[in-house]
TrEMBL record:
The lineage of its organism: Bacteria, Bacillati, Bacillota, Clostridia, Eubacteriales. InterPro entries: R2K_3, Transl_B-barrel_sf. This is ATP-grasp domain-containing protein. SUPFAM superfamilies: Translation proteins (SSF50447). It comes from the Bacteria.
Length: 379
């Protein structure tokens, strides 16, 4: 670490006659002439250094750097981390019965990352979620980390982030960036005109609150979910409501959903207008309709790959709709995330869901192709 430098950018401002200054808390050593890099690859050159002090209960060391850069807007640095250099590491959950081996559900991804010469790291998902422990050794070198594993609640992700940061491992998304796509209410405002009408409760609603929510949809069919997941494989029991005005039937579906989620319910209940999508059949077990849906993996606002949502098929191109919404996608403060889109029965495309790219499934997509594409994007 003595040969590196980390700056958490808190402010970006211009000084007349001098140029642009980025300022924030730091550790390590930086010199005039150094080239600093963000986790997504943007680079700046240090032209000057200014030591700053602020008081917030006690003293915190801050630094201001006069910098120059090319090809992107200065706003890109706000709330970013800057380093002199870093290695790239992929993080996976270990096998619950053997902490020296990857979880069997991610072993193919683990081996593929290794085969491409990328560092890999294991941690115990069970220790994190049950005890708040992350047993990772201190690394003398800075590491940019992409987690690929089981979904985490925001508090669990924050715990993982903080523990890794203490050991010089920096996850690609901060806790705030994680929840920006992980929780539907955090991204809905950016796509409101391009996604089904949606309302939500802030916590688990009582009967009266559920009834009031149902009234917003009159007789329009809706689906039930929480901030993250639905129980779509229990389509008629816990997900789909044909007529919200049939209150008793609707309440039964919502309550089935809440009971089924149990301790895994994410924050509150979400009701979304059901949209007729271009059908490709029905699920063999649940009877739920299967539609023409695609999952886009996005790194630094560029499409890494396009996945057929229901079959993992490698899609060589994406619809023009994606190009049309790329500016809206740039409103999402996250470095690595997914956008699920679907084709309506009338041929129009809409946004269905967003998710953090580290915990989004590949849907049986070819692992080798995914890692080749992602690693190329990381370069």
């Amino acid at each position: 670490m003595k040969d590196n430098f980390v700056l958490k950018v808190e402010e970006v401002f211009d000084i007349k006659g001098r140029g642009t200054v980025i300022a924030g808390k730091y550790k390590g050593i930086v010199k005039v002439g150094d080239i600093l890099i963000t986790l997504t690859g943007e680079k700046v050159k240090v032209l000057g250094i200014e030591m700053l002090r602020i008081i917030e209960g006690n003293y915190d060391e801050r630094i201001g750097l006069l910098v120059e850069w090319k090809e992107f807007k200065k706003e890109v640095f706000k709330d970013k981390l800057l380093f002199r250099s870093y290695n790239t590491t992929f993080l996976f959950c270990s096998d619950p019965l053997n902490k020296n081996k990857p979880d069997m559900d991610y072993i193919d991804e683990y081996e593929e990352a290794k085969s491409n010469g990328i560092n890999v790291l294991l941690f115990s998902y069970e220790d994190l979620t049950e005890f708040g422990k992350v047993n990772v050794s201190l690394n003398p070198q800075i590491n940019r980390v992409i987690y690929r594993g089981w979904m985490l609640k925001p508090k669990e992700y924050e715990c993982l982030y903080n523990n890794l940061e203490d050991k010089n491992y920096y996850l690609i998304n901060t806790p705030d960036e994680y929840v920006n796509t992980h929780y539907l209410p955090n991204w809905y405002q950016h796509f409101e005109v391009l996604t089904p009408k949606t309302i939500w409760s802030e916590n688990v609603p009582n009967k009266e609150e559920i009834i009031n929510m149902l009234k917003d949809f009159n007789e329009e069919p809706i689906i039930v979910k929480d901030y993250v997941k639905s129980r779509k494989h229990e389509w008629y029991e816990s997900c789909y409501i044909e007529n919200p005005k049939e209150t008793e039937k609707a309440l039964k579906v919502v309550n089935n959903f809440i009971k089924g989620q149990g301790e895994y319910l994410n924050q509150g209940v979400v009701l979304r207008k059901f949209i007729e999508l271009e059908s490709i059949g029905f699920h063999g077990k649940s009877g739920m309709p299967i539609s023409n849906e695609l999952r886009l993996f996005i790194f630094n606002y560029k499409v890494v790959c396009v996945v057929g949502y229901w079959n993992g098929k490698n899609i060589n191109e994406y619809p023009e709709f994606v190009d049309d919404i790329i500016e809206k996608i740039k409103n999402i403060k996250s470095n690595f995330f997914t956008v699920d889109i679907a084709k309506k029965s009338n041929g129009e495309w809409i946004v269905m869901e967003l998710g953090d790219g580290q915990v989004s499934g590949l849907q049986e997509y070819d692992v080798k192709t995914f890692y080749l594409s992602l690693i190329k994007s990381l370069e």
